[in-house]
Amino acid sequence: MDGFKMIVVGLDLDSKSENLTLGSQKALQEALKVAEGGRASIVFEHSVYDEEFSGDESERAREADERLLALDRRALREALNEATRAGILALVSTSTDRPWLGLCRKAIATEADLVIVGKRNESPDDGRLIGSVAVKLLRKCPTAVWAVKPEHDLNHRLVLCATDLGEVGDQALAAASWVAGCRAAELHAVHAWQLPFALQMASSRMAEAEHEEALESIKRASIEHINSSLSEHDPAAKVEIHTAKGSPARIIQEAVTHLDPDLLVMGTISRGGIAGLLIGSTAERMLDRVDCSILAVKPAGFVSPVA
After folding, report:
1. What CATH number has the domain spanning 6-148?
2. pLDDT of 164-208, one tens digit each?
């Protein structure tokens, strides 16, 4: 992987001060670091839509248009200036769409390969969770989604990749390796494995030594796959691998608790042909279960329902 080339960043403004929320400040800083590492361009996207808009669709649209005209763009201009000073090509875009929808549409229009948002909107007087935007993006956005933890210092010391050993798991591993390489971070990988059905059926008839060897064979195959996949993307990369039997959600959460990563990278899975439907919802469940930033990678065949 050679980094990301076009990044869309969701920027939210505090309802009283009209400064960037803490989550958006961290999303901005993370985007600048990612753009510098991969020589990417950035679009800063801000939506004026408010869930409290009343009336029918036309009245809500009118309220959104009025808010757009009255928008104080100072904080957005400051974000643009910061990118320009870093030598990054960037622009600001505003929308009257719901935040997640505006981000999806902008990602599609610009052919972006990454959307970055704050994991939560941390404005003390605003109870909205930008995490709900991240969940919508996981379900519907065709690009990778990076949800940044607002409290994080953005120093990536350890990057953890959760892989199912499938194609999207290999893509997640490549992305994790790239981030770890750019930030001089430790790279770890975790895989939750299950007993094949045939082995479950035969286990009662197997000798203990034979059964243990079968389990070790599964573990070895997992480790070999991860090492082989990583060497294809970055032969010089080093990874510490953790494998365990159990459900992916439990094993990943245990690994996060034990390793305390700065970033968890994992894949999402779409059911072929059904737009935005996740059958691998582990990434979605992890958003509120783990206390770190999350980078969710989409499979090549992901179908977005957004037009």
Report:
1. 3.40.50.620
2. 898 999 999 999 999 999 999 999 999 998 776 666 556 666 666
